[in-house]
Amino acid sequence: MNKRWIEHSLRTQLAKPFVHILFGARQTGKTTLLTELLPSPALHYNLADPEERTRHLANPGSFRQECEALPDSDKPHVVFVDEAQAVPSIFDAVQVLYDQDRSRWRFVLCGSSARKLRKAGANLLPGRCLLHRLFPLILPERPAPAWSRSAPRSPLIALGSKTMFPAAFPAADIEERLAFGDLPGIALLPEEDRRPVLKAFVEVHLEEEIRREALVKDWGAFVNFLRLAAHEAGQIVNFAAISREAGVSLPTVKAHYQLLEDMFVGFRVPAYSKSPRKNLLSTPRFFFFDLGIRHAAAGLVPDRNVVRADPGRFFEQWVGIEIWKRLQYRGEGQLHHFRTKDGAEVDFIVEVDDRVIPIEVKWTDKPSLRDLSHLTSFLRDHPRARTGYVVCRCPRPMKLSDTVTALPWHHL
Quick check: 405 pLDDT over 80? Predict the structure, then answer.
């Protein structure tokens, strides 16, 4: 078992007398992790299995009846439901059973989409559940090569002492991460096998998930949208332009973006609005949750040549994704971007622990303050922002001024 950063805290949380829901995109390792933490559940339902799913859809009462048939025990019976969103009525049954006797069962549900639950008005067990999330690998789980494994605690978004556990996944340089992403299963494969698996994720998983839940009426139009959205990933979203190019209405484009978020395949980064400047752009940027999936969705063959054609663009996306995942794990803090109508831009603004941290991302190993005029202007205009960073490929941290530090990517 390759250890995950949240394993220790999740194990502790699962012992608490609540219903536990673990959400995350496909292939982030949810089932593997829960199988490790719940080695012998009293009942295990895999609703990705068509036969099992059909059985529960045809007879919604069977789940409750099977749980009630479990014998009395001094310890709660663990009931593990994989891909629970496929049968939304399961959530209602869990609520009835939990309210009936919260000490008799310990329900653990996981899923890769919240779309069907939201559309069906499914019961997400308010006041009864703890919600957990799992993401692709973060830097503490998958280190940089040996020469940089001694990186100190992050000055940006530190995750606490749990970042110090021995990394369990193979080390990877930055080019490998930008080419193939950070899904745990991909990180363990030889490079020649990563391309077809990433392609299959887009062609098989997304199609299966979307068609199974009847989320999109015109699959061909959605494929066109997905390709365009992937090409534009990391940029400020131009809904009108994508609508024209994909040949679908503006409301449909917005609904498709929401669908990607509901399936945990993407996320939006809103514009920073707490600024004295009046000419700010307010449109969000949109990112795919993993660069390997982004490349495959764009119709590209994920490999190092894709990265070498435009490394700065993908490096910026990788930094944004890494920061976003850490903020999600912390359960606090916000990620923004900053851009004015006259062209002033800071790649990312992080609000965490009462700090405002502006961050520029540069594909250089020789950062210079001359290239950071927008960052220094932001620091002058925003008193809460005391220190800014440029994340780059310099080998060690560098103090560029009293307020700006260059940070190697492996020190994030």
Answer: yes
